[in-house]
Structure formats: structure tokens, C-alpha cells
Specification:
The protein is mostly beta strands. The protein has no helices and 16 strands.
């Protein structure tokens, strides 16, 4: 089982509780009017605000503020759409291409990797941005159980009658096992 750990950060970020207009606005293709508003305070720098709009994922999806292997890196996930940027350059957040809506994420400080997990695949984020996205691992559901020795292991389709174990090489994104999807 993965022990929850978080990346060190040189900023404080939180979801905004107010309705003031944010300074920065980011929108993914197909986004609706609803948006997540956040406030970020980088260490020793001025505070800034932003909003992130995403399309409706049509299923349960993650909304979260996640650290990255970079001390000033921030991954904002709004309704399953991930936006990645550096808090020192708040105008340059970009959508992270994933194979579907992000439903969970794992910060792996020992491996210097942030994993964004969709119902079908995993996308890895390193200190300088996206590293890889796996091939399709599951029909509908990916559960990560362990990360060690440069590998992440888990179950494809954990709620199915026949879940299948898989392992992913954290350097290359190569998958061993999982559900056979054609």
C-alpha cells in the first residue's frame, strides 16, 4: 500500500472561498462557465489568484491542488482536467494531456514523480513537465497499490470479477500486465 507523502513546496495554495475576479484565467477546450478559483502565495513573492475551467467529465473526477517534483510546481486538477505550471510564472499554466478524466493522483517524492490516474491509464509528471502516458491498462478502473524500486504496481479493473495486476516502469512508462485491451 502507498503511504501518502507530499512534495516539498515553496508556496501556499488554496481554493478561494470568495467570488472576486481572479487575475489569471485558464480554460480547457470544451469548458463550461463553472471554474475552480485558487489563491497562491509563493515564498517571498506577491500573492496571485486564478481560475481554472474544465469540461464536465461525465463521471466522478478529481478536483485538487497537487505539488510536483519541482519546489515551485503546481498541478491544479479541476473536474478531472489537469493544469500544470510554475507558481513563479502564473501566466503559463497549460492543460496536461491525459487519456481521460483524472480520478486520483499520487505524489511520489522518493521517485520524483506525480502520477495522474484516469480510469484507463496513468500519466507521469516530472520536475520539468509530463514524462509519459501509459498505454491503456484497464477496461474501467486503475488502482495503484505500491511504488518502489522504480516501479508502480496496482490492479486494473479492481472492482471486476477478474482484476489483473500490472506494473509500470517509472522511467519509461512501459507496462507489464493489466487488462488486455484491443
Amino acid at each position: 500500500m502507498i503511504t501518502r507523502r507530499h512534495f516539498a513546496r515553496e508556496y501556499h495554495a488554496e481554493i478561494a472561498e470568495y467570488s472576486a475576479t481572479p487575475v489569471h484565467t485558464f480554460s480547457a477546450e470544451g469548458a463550461k462557465s463553472r471554474a475552480l478559483k485558487i489563491v497562491v502565495e509563493p515564498s517571498g513573492r506577491s500573492r496571485w489568484s486564478a481560475q481554472f475551467a474544465a469540461p464536465d467529465p461525465g463521471r466522478r473526477a478529481l478536483t485538487a491542488l497537487l505539488g510536483t517534483p519541482r519546489l515551485t510546481g503546481l498541478c491544479v486538477v479541476e473536474r478531472g482536467t489537469a493544469f500544470l505550471g510554475d507558481v513563479l510564472d502564473p501566466e503559463d499554466f497549460e492543460v496536461v494531456p491525459t487519456s481521460g478524466p483524472v480520478v486520483t493522483a499520487e505524489e511520489l517524492p522518493a521517485e520524483s514523480t506525480l502520477l495522474l490516474v484516469t480510469p484507463w491509464a496513468i500519466t507521469a509528471i516530472g520536475a520539468h513537465g509530463p514524462l509519459w502516458t501509459t498505454q491503456r491498462i484497464a477496461i474501467d478502473g486503475v488502482r495503484i497499490d505500491e511504488a518502489s524500486g522504480g516501479w508502480v504496481r496496482g490492479l486494473a479493473d479492481p472492482d471486476d470479477d477478474e482484476p489483473r495486476e500490472f506494473a509500470v516502469d517509472l522511467v519509461t512508462g512501459r507496462v507489464s500486465g493489466g487488462a488486455v485491451v484491443h
